[in-house]
Each structure stands twice: as C-alpha cells, then as structure tokens.
Write a structure and sequence with these properties.
- The chain has about 140 residues and is α+β, with helices and mostly antiparallel strands.
- Helices cover about 25% and strands about 30% of the residues.
- The protein contains 3 helices and 4 strands, in the order E-E-H-H-H-E-E.
- The chain has helices at about 35-50, 55-65, 70-80, and strands spanning about 5-20, 25-35, 85-90, 90-105.
- It has a 4-stranded antiparallel beta sheet.
- Strand 3 (about 85-90) and strand 4 (about 90-105) form a beta hairpin.
- The longest helix is centred in the first third of the chain and has 15 residues, at about 35-50.
- It starts with 6 loop residues before the first strand and ends in a 36-residue tail after the last strand.
Length: about 140
C-alpha cells in the first residue's frame, strides 16, 4: 500500500569549483537530512574534518563560521530557509548548501510486475576515488 504522508527534511549538497579553469561547479556529495540538527551537523562535521588541511586563513574562517554563526544557521534552518557556506582553498571554492524539501514516499515493488526495461539497468561501477560524485556522506 502506498503511503500518502510526506516528511519535511533538508537536501544537503557539497559543490566544488576550480576558480582558474572556467569549468562549471562539480557536485562532490549530497545528503538527505531529516532534521535541521542533522543538516547542520553534516556541514559542521565535514568542515571540522577538512579544516586541518586548509590554509590558516581559510581554516580560521571555517571555524568562525562553525562557532560564531552557529546560532544564525540553526535559526535559518528552523525557519526552513535555504542556507549556504563556502570556503576557498588553493583556488578551489567549496560550497555547502542546505535546502528545505519535502520527501515523498516511494511505492514498494512487492508483488508488482516491473517493465522489461527495469532489468536492463546496470549499476555504475565505483570509481578508484570512492563512490563517485553522487556518493552520500554520512557523518
């Protein structure tokens, strides 16, 4: 049976863009958070994880964003307002976005006949660098 209830949540993405090559941004990872706390923690965990690898100025800006602006971030997410934070390191712009969304239920396929094309799908092989640009990060 198909559930008709929807769930509020947040769609979180991390984009990178090299500032010198003129190429469009690349989606590095995404995450579906069910609460504003979970969305905020996703961004915070990644910033804390990469902070030691950033140059000193960028690292300080990241920590300032994590601690000094945390209340404002939480307020924005509680109001379900989209939120973005960016840092630049070595001519690479890294941007995290958090957008409020409504998650729709998926119909299960138990006992349902799938169309023939469903069996033609072959999952994409994992890349050497991990699970590829659409990998989901779990803090």
């Amino acid at each position: 049976m198909l559930s008709t209830t929807t769930d509020p949540g947040f769609w979180c993405e991390c984009w990178t863009r090299h500032l010198d090559d003129g190429q469009p941004p690349t989606l590095f990872g995404s995450y579906d958070a069910r609460t504003e706390v979970e969305a905020n923690n996703w961004v915070s965990t990644i910033l804390r994880s990469i902070s030691p690898a950033l140059d000193t100025d960028t690292s300080e800006k990241a920590w300032e964003r994590l601690y000094d602006h945390r209340v404002n971030t939480r307020r924005a997410l509680l109001r379900r307002v989209p939120w973005t934070v960016s840092v630049t390191h070595a001519r690479t712009l890294i941007t995290w976005t958090v957008s409020p969304v409504t998650f729709l239920p998926l119909a299960h396929r138990h006992g349902a006949e799938l169309p023939p094309c469903a069996y033609d799908f072959k999952p994409q092989a994992a890349t050497a660098a991990g699970d590829g640009p659409h990998a989901r990060w779990r803090p």
